[in-house]
Design brief:
The chain has about 525 residues and is α/β, with parallel strands linked by helices. The protein folds into 3 domains: about 10-285, Alpha-Beta Barrel (TIM Barrel); about 300-390, no CATH class; about 395-515, Double Stranded RNA Binding Domain (2-Layer Sandwich). It is about 40% helix and about 20% strand. It contains 16 helices and 16 strands. An 8-stranded parallel β-barrel has the order 2-3-4-5-6-7-8-9, surrounded by 9 helices. It has a 3-stranded antiparallel beta sheet with strand order 11-12-13. Strand 6 (about 140-145), helix 6 and strand 7 form a beta-alpha-beta unit. The radius of gyration is 25 Å and the shape is globular. The structure holds 3-methyl-2-oxobutanoic acid (KIV) and zinc ion (ZN).
Length: about 525
């Protein structure tokens, strides 16, 4: 297919933030967060959303099922191993999808076949045929992946791909599962498959590159140059271990270097910054300052020589404009005299539509913020609204907090929480003010979760800036990240910890509804 605006061939963007991305250690997302991300991906123009691995948990099944109902444009995909149970579960989850895709996979490399699958080549080929055929009973759109393809013996990879195609696969994905390949080698693998496998021209080849050597995006683009017409990627490059190819980098690489890579995508690039912020907020994974495309410094120029060049002509040091990826120069926005109407308009211009109750709450919090903070910037508003959406119907809430700390003072936190409507109060001391707050929370709501990460970042500049605090908790292998922003860093810490606890409660309930008893 070609793009009508550029005349370039189009590359399908397959986003796996909700599946491979969610496999990042510590990046668990709640159901509501997954729906929000899926909605944004759909609006942004992603072609295929891999919404989860339905057999892996009831939560994943529900996510795939509801995302299938929710999205308007994209195909929705569910992952399945080669077994029939996996495939049937994916088929069931996708029943309501307008454009369902089943993605089934099996390992083809010698090391995986011998040690992981304990299967020989013939058994693997048989499983490929059977799994793809089974998936075709549910949908005509079946993707097959050769897990660890880049460490697979070329002749066997060709045979495996041939079986998948002749069993009905319509997309053939070539994962660099362990991030081992290089651009030249990956180019050659895709080229070889396209030239050697019978009927290769009847399917779409796809890239799926991990970033263990920092080459995921380069390898994906090499795959495109070799003839792949689908790229699998994630927002901010999150994913197993070092992650996947970053969607924003792949898309902007193609857009900026159309001169040597004449390919288009359907992505509205002005939504990239927003998608990056949302995924970072939900996962609690900060975006590194120097991250390509969406990092805080991606469009900042520090050295005098660069600044001088930029003032004379922006193209001296800028290969794309910040607006192209949705980065606006920090803008002064509403003040404490702004009314509901202006506030709603501003939210809508930033892509947020809140339900009435959430809007009223956000407006009240905006007024409080404008009282405390001289200038309220767009970034403040994003933090405030993301907080609002992230809250949901919380079982635990902070009602009152007073913290004492300083030199010669024992750090003390007096805290009141409401837990399922019941008020609980305590005063706790700690090694520092944050420790005192967390001890107070643990005293009021006993739990076994351990703190994995505590992180503070400033939303904007200045000493009156809001602080965003991320708290990651782990309980019996389940990880959640709570986030909150406030001009008072200690208050933000308390809110973030409580936000994480509420997420943990939701997770526990999903896995075992009876476990949602309110702990003391
Ligand atoms: O990295 C990988 O091999 C995968 C497959 C499931 C496609 O994520
Ligand atoms: Zn992967």
């Amino acid at each position: 297919m070609t793009s009508s605006s550029t005349g370039f061939e189009t590359i399908k963007i397959f986003d796996t933030t909700l599946r491979d991305g969610e496999q990042s250690p510590g990046a668990a997302m709640t159901h509501e967060e997954k729906l929000r991300i899926a909605e944004l991906l759909d609006e942004m123009g992603v072609d295929i959303i891999e919404a989860g691995f339905p057999i892996s948990s009831p939560g994943d099944f529900k996510a795939v099922n509801e995302i299938a109902k929710l999205v308007k444009r994209a195909s929705v995909c569910g992952l399945a191993r080669a077994g029939f149970k996996d495939i049937d579960r994916a088929g069931e989850a996708l029943k309501t999808a307008v454009r369902p895709r089943i993605h089934t996979f099996i390992s083809t490399s010698p090391v995986h076949m011998k040690h992981k699958l304990q299967m020989g080549e013939n058994a693997v080929l048989e499983a490929i045929g059977a799994s793809v055929t089974r998936a075709r009973n549910f949908t005509d759109d079946v993707q097959w992946s050769a897990e660890d393809a880049t460490r697979t013996v070329p002749d066997f990879l060709c045979r495996a791909v041939e079986v998948a195609i002749h069993s009905g696969a319509t997309t053939i994905n070539i994962p660099d599962t362990v991030g081992y390949s290089t651009p030249q080698e990956y180019f050659e693998i895709v080229s070889m498959l396209r030239s050697r496998v019978p009927d290769a021209d009847k399917v779409i080849f796809s890239t799926h590159c991990h970033n263990d050597l920092g080459l995921a995006v380069a390898n994906s683009l090499a795959g495109v140059l070799a003839g792949a017409r689908q790229v699998e990627c994630t927002i901010n490059g999150i994913g197993e271990r070092a992650g996947n190819a970053a969607l924003e980098e792949v898309v902007m690489g193609l857009k900026v270097r159309g001169d040597i890579m004449p390919f288009a995508t359907g992505i509205d690039t002005t939504m990239l910054a927003r998608a990056s912020k949302l995924v970072s907020n939900v996962t609690g994974f900060p975006v590194q300052y120097n991250k390509a495309i969406v990092g805080k410094n991606a469009f900042s120029h520090e050295s005098g020589i660069h600044q001088d060049g930029m003032l004379k002509h922006v193209e001296t040091y800028e290969i794309m404009r910040p607006e192209d990826v949705g980065v606006k120069s920090t803008s002064l926005m509403l003040g404490k005299l702004s009314g509901r109407h202006a506030f709603r308009d501003k939210l809508e211009s930033m892509g947020y539509t809140l339900e009435e109750a959430a809007f009223e709450d956000a407006f009240r919090r905006f007024k409080d913020l404008a009282d405390k903070k001289k200038h309220v910037f767009d970034e403040d508003l994003v933090a405030l609204v993301d907080d609002e959406i992230g809250r949901g119907h919380d079982t635990i809430a902070v009602k009152y907090l007073r913290v004492e700390s300083g030199t010669g003072v024992e750090p003390t936190a007096a805290l009141t929480l409401t837990v399922a409507g019941e008020e609980r109060r305590v005063t706790a001391v700690g090694d520092g003010p944050v420790d005192a707050i967390f001890k107070a929370i643990r005293a009021l709501y006993e739990h076994t979760a351990t703190l994995q990460l505590f992180q503070i970042s400033a939303v904007t500049e200045g000493t009156d800036a809001q602080a965003t605090v991320s708290v990651r908790l782990e309980e019996e292998g389940r990880t959640v990240t709570g986030k909150a922003s406030d001009t008072d860093t200690m208050a933000a810490a308390a809110y973030a910890y409580v936000n994480a606890l509420n997420k943990l409660l939701v997770k526990r309930q999903k896995l075992a509804p009876e476990a949602l008893t309110v702990a003391r």
